[in-house]
Amino acid sequence: MGAPLAVVAVVARTLAQLWDRPLLGVNHCVGHIEMGRLLARARDPLVLYVSGGNTQVIAFSRRRYRIFGETLDIAVGNCLDRFARVLKISNDPSPGYNIEQMAKRGTKLVELPYVVKGMDVSFSGLLSHVEAVAPRLLATGEATAEDLCFSLQVLGQIPAILGFLGEGVGY
């Protein structure tokens, strides 16, 4: 991804010089949030921003963004990708989609740890736990891959994110 970004940066600098305009840096995350604010006509939103490498609770107030909480280690998207790899779940069309479809067929809850620390959340312990117990659970038939996907959604990431977001509501 470095080469295309470098080319675009050179083009942007060139156009700024040719048209005698300032070149302004824009935070990629803020670009996504601003589009949502515009479309929803939200004035001062509290945002749960979940994207590939980011998981953050962000609020907009007094014309500024403030991060109230975020992942301490790995983002939800990265956790889903690695979880899928551990369970040998296909990437086609995407790991998250496939985990969701498999979770619909799961029936047994397998306890999964997660940590909410103040306004921050951690998913590395959850992932380490799955890496450690999944082979045994699958081999003995104590749980299926579908059960682990179901548990990830019901006991893992969703409660962690809701608790994490709930902390931000009081800002």
Automatic annotation (TrEMBL):
UniProt subcellular location: Cytoplasm; Nucleus
InterPro entries (UniProt xref): ATPase_NBD (IPR043129), Gcp-like_dom (IPR000905), KAE1/TsaD (IPR017861), Peptidase_M22_CS (IPR017860)
Catalytic activity: L-threonylcarbamoyladenylate + adenosine(37) in tRNA = N(6)-L-threonylcarbamoyladenosine(37) in tRNA + AMP + H(+)
Domain Gcp-like residue range list: 2-153
PROSITE patterns: GLYCOPROTEASE
Pfam families tied to this protein: TsaD (PF00814)
Name this polypeptide is given: N(6)-L-threonylcarbamoyladenine synthase
Organism: Anas platyrhynchos platyrhynchos (Northern mallard)
Phylogenetic lineage: Eukaryota, Metazoa, Chordata, Craniata, Vertebrata
